[in-house]
Each structure stands twice: as structure tokens, then as C-alpha cells.
Design brief:
Distance between the termini of chain B: 37 Å
Number of domains of chain B: 2
Shape of chain A: globular
Radius of gyration of chain B: 22 Å
CATH class of chain A: Alpha Beta
Oligomer: heterodimer
Distance between the termini of chain A: 23 Å
Number of strands of chain B: 0
Number of helices of chain B: 15
Strand content of chain B: under 5%
Largest sheet of chain B: none
CATH superfamily of chain A: Metal-dependent hydrolases
Strand content of chain A: 5-15%
Strand order of the largest sheet of chain A: 1-2-3-4-5-6-7-8
Radius of gyration of chain A: 18 Å
CATH architecture of chain A: Alpha-Beta Barrel
Chain lengths: 301, 284
């Protein structure tokens, strides 16, 4: 099976992760712009971060046969530093129409402050202007209210729900998000978000239409194999392969494909890994793949 | 220039993409604003085919460019018509956030940009890359380095081009800008390579002509005795341009010297032969 993990922060992951993901069938990934565990203090660090998303990280992924895309955005946490936020908003138009940029993201609410709302609106307007999908981060705290408020704000701006992927949903938010016509994404992330047995239950109740499963693996204790492992668990629990493929591959491809910047032929036609390729003189591939036990434990709790 | 470039693009590119480009250029010419420029410069990738090459007339500087590069340079020509502050701010914003293909377009455009004195440092810095396509966009088929580089920057570029085995005959000014420190450095590099049992591109010797002291003359004698026909061809070209100083080599290079006399061998043709060999080798 092939997978498309539409939310994973590879700048925080190792080459071991890339190897295991490739071996488990992850063909393509989307890396959303996000905060990096501690607040940035200068707009210049955003520039270099964005540059790495369209540059070195893309190359690094390609060295493992994985096609890497990204979304560009100012995350809600850092939107609260208004001086920084303004400067990042100035920077974003330089990136959002670039090759392989499949949306504005991840944006949305964290503490649900006025400043967060202001930059959510501004970035939604940018997405309209550049005709790009939006990738939404929903808050950890007061999630249900924050999710509904996000949808209200986007609709006020005039955004079409079918161009928005709302992420980190759970049992409390799923119904309204689906009912309002949004792509409804679930992050399989141990401890703090959603385990994959709950995901199976959600699939049994809501089916596969408009549902997306991703890992959001980052610098925390998370799992870059969350998508293939969840697919394995779904199969074991009797969900059809067609439905599994829909939520782990076809749906994210369709949702972000609206950018015109990602299509299946990008990886299906690719010539595979070029072991001699360099990026700014750097090479990555040393030694072989070590993947034997990667998939042996697929339950994420 | 702009019209020629767009006409060449129009011959093979998607007609919708070409009319988008024409519309964009005419809008930007009337009212230039940064954000629409950013969107269209990057957004070339949404409309054109990066693997398709355009055809220009044989001597045209853009013959063989891919569509992204051609369309982006066409847009940069509009930027070049703007007032100085806007031009410089926009040019550097785009350069500092550019992906690889965008950098190639930006460096290719330098020769047609205004305020070139302000762009020299960016070109010198751009050459510090290890990405061959970016290096080539600055160094090859581009008159900008010849026109603007200091001797130090020129020599750095030449040495790196030799080091990376780039086709030197495509560097503008390679004959005119040779100098003694470069000749010394090339000799040093050759000795280093020989000590390691490796070779140096025969085209490198073109830059020592005119600086043939004893050491360089011995280098040329060594090259003249090489088994590689391109080495011997390069040695003959040096001999033919060096008056009496390498007269002792004439006998062993009679065949090559005759080709030079009949016009069948010169630095350009030698460079082409070497480049074709390199391309063939990289394909096998």
C-alpha cells in the first residue's frame, strides 16, 4: 500500500524516520509550517525556515524516495507576537506561489486571542488571493469552541469549505466539521491527540468520505509511521482496503491537489532515488536501509 | 529581447501559459506592484513545463533554456524597468527567498538588469554554491562576470569552474581576462591533481598563455606528452599562441598544429568536444 501523510514536521525527524517511512510505503508527505518548540524572535528565522522547507528538506526527503511538499503560514502561537507576525505576513507572498507549496498552513487558533483571529483572517485572505487550500490547526484547549469559531471566521472571509482541511479533529468536533463540508483530518499522535483504535471507531461511524488521517509527527514523542500503522490496524479490524486508501492516500491528494502543485504522477513517474545527488554539496545516503522491525508494533495508544 | 524571448516560448509552450505571461507583463508594465510580481515570478511553475526546452536562434543567449527560466527572465525584464529602490528591493527579496530554479533565472538575467554595480556582490556570492546549475547560470554564457568581476573574483570563478570541470569555452572573456595570479594558481592546481593521479581539464591551459615562465613551460611539455588527444590539442593551441617560447614542442605536435592552421582546431571547438565527451560520460 502507498500512503500520503499530509501533516508531518520532517525538519525535526531523523534519517531513520525517512527510511522507515519509505519502507512502510509513505510515497508523499506535506510539511506544514509550524512553530518549532520555542518562540522565534526574528522574522529572518522564518525566512530561513521557509527556505529550508522548499529547499533542503525537500531534497532530504527525495533521497529516501519520498516526495515532499509544504504549506506556508504563520502558526497561531507566534501570531501573538504582533510585530513578528506583521513581518512574517510581509514575507509570505514571496513563498506561497512557489513550486510544491500546496497551501497556507498550518494556521488557526491556539489560545483563541484577538491577535490569533486577526492573522487567521489575513492569511485566509492570502489563500483566496493565491487560490490555495488552507490547512487548519485546531487548538488543544477548548477545542470544540475553537474549531467552530475557526469555521465561522473562514466562512466570513468567503472561503469555500471544500478548500479547507481542518486538522486534529476528535469525536467531539467531527460531526459539525463534516456537516459543514470541510475536509476532516485526524492526527494519530500518541498521548496528546488521538490513538488509532479511536480512529478505527470513528471510521466505522462516519465512513471515509472527506476523512483524512495524518501523523503530525514533530519534535515531540510522536510517530512518523502513524499513517501506515493505522492503515494496518484498520485492515485488521475489517475496514475495506478501498476506504483505507481513501483516508490515507486519495483524500489528502484530492484536498491538496486543489493547489495544482501536487499530483500522483509526481512520484509515480519519478525515477527513484539518485544516490549521487547532492544539495549544496551535501549528501545524505550512507549505508543501507534497516527496516525489519519498523512495522511490527502498530498499535498507537 | 523580451519580445524575442516570449516569441521563442510561444513556439512550444502551452498557449494559455503564454497569454498569461503576456497579460501579466503588460499589467506589471502599467502598474508595478511587488506582490503580484512575487506571485507571477513563483507562479510560473503553475503554468509552464520545466522539462520543456525553448529554441532560440543559434546565437541567442536563451537557446536551450527551460520554460521556467525563460518565462521568469521575461518577468525580470519588466522588473528591470522599475525605479532604482523598487528594483533593488524586489530583486533582493526574490533572490533571498528563491528556490533553485528561481535562482537560475535570477542569475541568468543579470546581464540585462540595470544598476549592475549593485548586483556584483550577489553574483560573486552566488558562485559559492555547490549546485552546478546555479554556478552555470552565473559563469556560463553570461557576460556579467567578464564585465564586472574584480581580478580576485574572476580568478575564484575560473578556478572553481576548472575544479568542477565546467566547459570553460562558454565563459565569456576567458581569453581576455587571463592574468598571472590565475596562471600560477592553475599550475598549482594541476600539480596537486597530478600528484593525486588525477587530471585537469585541458581547457585550463588557455589561461596560462602569455605567462609562460619555466614552470609553466614544463607543464605544457607534460600536457603535450599526454595520451589524451584533448590534452595534446590544448598544448598545441598554447604553442601556437606562444611565439618562440615552446618551439621545441612543434615537432611532436605537427599534426595538431596543422589542424590549427586549417581552422579545424581552436579553443572553441576543443571546448565543444570536451563538453560532448563529458555529457556522454554522465549518461553512461
Amino acid at each position: 500500500m502507498r500512503f500520503f501523510d499530509s501533516h508531518v514536521h520532517m525538519v525535526s525527524r531523523t534519517t531513520d524516520d525517512y527510511q522507515r517511512m519509505a519502507a512502510a510505503g509513505v510515497a508523499a508527505i506535506i510539511e506544514p509550517s509550524f512553530w518549532q518548540g520555542q518562540p522565534r524572535t526574528e522574522p529572518g528565522t522564518f525566512k530561513d525556515y521557509f527556505n529550508s522547507l522548499i529547499g533542503f528538506e525537500r531534497f532530504r526527503a527525495s533521497q529516501f524516495g519520498i516526495k515532499h511538499y509544504c504549506t506556508i503560514g504563520l502558526n497561531p502561537k507566534e501570531a501573538n507576537n504582533e510585530k513578528l507576525a506583521e513581518a512574517v505576513l510581509e514575507l509570505m507572498p514571496l513563498y506561497i506561489c512557489k513550486e510544491g507549496v500546496v497551501g497556507i498552513g498550518e494556521i488557526g487558533f491556539d489560545d483563541q486571542t484577538k491577535a490569533e483571529e486577526k492573522y487567521l483572517i489575513k492569511q485566509a485572505e492570502l489563500a483566496l488571493e493565491a487560490d490555495l487550500p488552507i490547512q487548519i490547526h485546531t487548538p488543544h484547549r477548548d477545542k470544540k469552541k475553537g474549531t467552530i469559531r475557526t469555521m465561522d471566521v473562514l466562512e466570513d472571509v468567503g472561503i469555500d469549505p471544500s478548500k479547507v482541511i481542518i486538522d486534529h479533529n476528535n469525536e467531539e468536533t467531527v460531526k459539525e466539521v463534516l456537516d459543514r463540508g470541510y475536509w476532516t483530518a485526524f492526527t494519530i499522535y500518541p498521548h496528546t491527540k488521538l490513538g488509532n483504535e479511536r480512529m478505527v471507531e470513528l471510521m466505522l461511524e462516519y465512513g471515509a468520505e472527506n476523512i483524512v488521517v495524518d501523523s503530525a509527527a514533530d519534535w515531540g514523542i510522536s510517530d512518523p509511521l502513524a499513517v501506515p500503522k493505522t492503515a494496518a490496524l484498520m485492515k485488521e479490524r475489517g475496514i475495506s482496503e478501498e476506504q483505507i486508501e481513501q483516508v490515507t492516500y486519495h483524500n489528502p491528494l484530492k484536498a491538496y491537489g486543489q493547489s495544482g502543485q501536487v499530483e500522483e504522477s509526481d512520484w509515480e513517474d519519478s525515477k527513484g532515488i539518485d544516490p549521487a545527488a547532492l544539495f549544496e554539496g551535501n549528501t545524505l545516503l550512507r549505508g543501507g536501509m534497516d527496516i525489519d522491525t519498523a512495522m511490527s508494533q502498530y498499535l498507537i495508544e | 529581447m523580451r519580445e524575442k524571448l516570449i516569441e521563442s516560448l510561444a513556439e512550444s509552450a502551452d498557449p494559455d501559459a503564454v497569454s498569461w505571461l503576456r497579460d501579466t507583463i503588460s499589467n506589471l508594465s502599467v502598474t508595478f506592484e511587488k506582490r503580484p510580481f512575487y506571485y507571477s515570478f513563483s507562479g510560473v511553475s503553475r503554468r509552464f513545463d520545466k522539462s520543456a526546452k525553448i529554441k532560440g536562434a543559434d546565437d541567442s543567449p536563451f537557446d536551450g533554456w527551460d520554460e521556467y527560466r525563460a518565462a521568469r527572465v521575461a518577468l525580470l525584464l519588466v522588473l528591470g524597468e522599475q525605479e532604482k529602490t523598487i528594483f533593488l528591493e524586489t530583486f533582493f527579496s526574490v533572490l533571498n527567498t528563491a528556490d533553485i530554479r528561481e535562482q537560475i533565472a535570477l542569475f541568468s538575467s543579470l546581464q540585462w538588469m540595470p544598476y549592475q554595480d549593485e548586483l556584483i556582490e550577489a553574483a560573486v556570492d552566488g558562485l559559492r554554491t555547490n549546485i552546478v546549475d546555479i554556478f552555470d547560470a552565473i559563469a556560463l554564457d553570461n557576460p556579467f562576470p567578464q564585465m564586472h568581476f574584480t581580478e580576485e573574483a574572476w580568478n575564484q570563478m575560473m578556478l572553481k569552474a576548472i575544479f568542477m570541470t565546467r566547459p570553460l569555452h562558454r565563459i565569456h572573456g576567458v581569453a581576455e581576462r587571463k592574468n598571472r595570479p590565475l596562471a600560477e594558481a592553475i599550475s598549482d592546481l594541476a600539480h596537486e591533481r597530478w600528484a593525486a593521479g588525477r587530471v585537469i581539464t585541458p581547457e585550463a591551459w588557455r589561461s596560462v598563455i602569455g605567462f609562460l615562465d619555466e614552470r609553466h613551460s614544463d607543464d605544457i611539455r607534460k600536457v603535450a606528452g599526454s595520451e589524451n588527444p584533448s590534452d595534446r590539442a590544448a598544448a598545441s593551441l598554447v604553442v601556437s599562441e606562444s611565439g618562440d617560447s615552446l618551439i621545441d614542442l612543434q615537432e611532436s605536435l605537427t599534426g595538431e598544429l596543422a589542424l590549427i592552421d586549417s581552422g579545424e582546431l581552436n579553443w572553441y571547438l576543443l571546448g565543444q568536444t570536451i563538453e560532448e565527451q563529458l555529457v556522454r560520460e554522465s549518461l553512461t
